[in-house]
Amino acid sequence: MKRVIYPGTFDPITVGHMDIIKRATILFDEVVVAVAASSGKKPMFTHKQRVDMVSLATKSLSNVQVVGFSNLLVQLCEELDTDIVIRGLRAVSDFEYELQMGYANASLKENIETVYLMPNLEHAFISSSIVRSILLFGGKVEHLIPKEILPVIEQVV
């Protein structure tokens, strides 16, 4: 069975993330969406809220599991017995950062493979930081996030 981990902060999860997750479910037997605590990034939503939102957004996908983590990604790979990581790339600027992270992970775990997926063009501009910025000014984000998480967003913001 081929298991892949899709790690991220998911602050909050967007339709771009969902696009990557849905396509990963076709390529792999099991997709583990790993929500990083990322306290250094000072997320808008708590770790529990983010794990809950990802769980709500992916509940209809039978081969998706959601976990929270606060250790190194390579340690999580060991715990979950996988050497495959999926990352999304929206633009060239993402590539530089993701390439560095991929090499850093490979330096810590020899057999780790990072697979890069690009979101569909209609989602290429969407990022969690854009959603957070719009939320801070009371703007509408319904078209940028999975509908299942809207109630959680409305409670917090």
Strand order of the largest sheet: 1-2-3
Percent of residues in beta strands: 15-25%
Helix fraction, binned, reads 40-55%
Mean pLDDT across every amino acid position: 94
Q: Domain count, please report it.
A: 1
The CATH topology corresponds to Rossmann fold
| CATH class placement | Alpha Beta
Major sheet characteristics = 3 strands, parallel
Q: Separation of termini?
A: 40 Å
List keywords for this structure.
single chain; 157 residues; 42% helix; two-stranded parallel ribbon; three-stranded parallel sheet; alpha/beta; Rossmann fold
Q: Could you describe the 3D structure shown?
A:
The chain has a single domain (3-156), classed as 3-Layer(aba) Sandwich (Rossmann fold), CATH 3.40.50. It has 6 helices and 5 strands, in the order E-H-E-H-E-H-E-H-E-H-H. The protein has helices at residues 15-27, 47-58, 73-80, 92-108, 128-136, 150-156, and strands at residues 3-8, 30-36, 64-69, 84-88, 113-117. The strands form 2 sheets. It has a 3-stranded parallel sheet, with helices on both faces. Strands 4-5 form a two-stranded parallel sheet. The radius of gyration is 15 Å and the shape is globular. The mean pLDDT is 94.
Topology:
Elements: E1 3-8, H1 15-27, E2 30-36, H2 47-58, E3 64-69, H3 73-80, E4 84-88, H4 92-108, E5 113-117, H5 128-136, H6 150-156
Parallel strand pairs: 1-2, 2-3, 4-5
Describe, in short, the structure shown.
This protein is α/β, with parallel strands linked by helices and about 160 residues long.
